[in-house]
Amino acid sequence: MSDVLPSGAPAHMKSLGEKTDETVLNEITNQPNITLGEISRILGMTSGKVHGSINRLYDKGLIVVEEVVRNGILMKRATTAEVTETPINQIQIPNSLIDVDEWGTHVYYYALSRSALGISPTQIKEWDEISLYKSSRKSVDKGSDTINLVIPDSLVNFYELPNSETELVGLGDSVILSIKSNIIPVDRPSGQN
Fold first, then answer.
1. What is the pTM of this model?
2. Which residues of 69-102 are buried (b: 16+ CB within 10 A; e: fewer)?
């Protein structure tokens, strides 16, 4: 058996790597802050193949990679370099998630638990009775595809939103902002990957 690669093999390997990079970059674009493990699972690729692709994309300046602790586990997550972050106290509710016609100028916030923030255009008696904290604001901005809100600082702090991963769930004209997990950014000494 020969250790010599057939003619054209390096070009073929480079082509396969570029296809992998394109697939991985598309997944990162569709799901900003996705972990390398999630990419591997979704795309059915080995972690080594994903890690190699991540390194190439990072070296080209196409993505940003950060290490975080999520639910006690150290992991890497990636996002595209051009993603602009929405300020942590702002939330965009897609119109497809709610009954937009019910939204006027007022919004009601209900701290339903340590992991659920109810948001509604009207007062909800059941949420009034069980909420740990409530607040209302006249700060509704209706965009063409979203309703844009500014969450009160007291709730940003209560839910530790700068260090949380969240998910929106629609309930008719209201939504629940669910805190999926808390994350802790990890700084490593330079030179360690």
1. 0.64
2. eeeeeebbbbbeeeeeeeeeeebebeeeebeeee
| Terminal CA-CA length for the chain | 36
Residues 6+ apart with CB under 8 A from 129: none
Q: Residue 103 burial by CB count (10 A; 0-12/13-18/19+): exposed, middle or buried?
A: buried
pLDDT at 3: 53
Cα 100 to its chain centre, rounded Å, is: 24
Tokens found for residue 165: 């991963």
Helix (H, G, I), strand (E, B) or coil at 82: coil
Q: What is the CATH number of the domain that holds 54?
A: 1.10.10.10
Q: What range defines the domain where residue 62 resides?
A: 9-80
Count other C-beta atoms under 10 Å from residue 168's C-beta: 16
**Does 112 lie in the same domain as 68?**
no
pLDDT, position 186: 63
**CA nearest 91: which of 43, 23, 146, 11?**
146
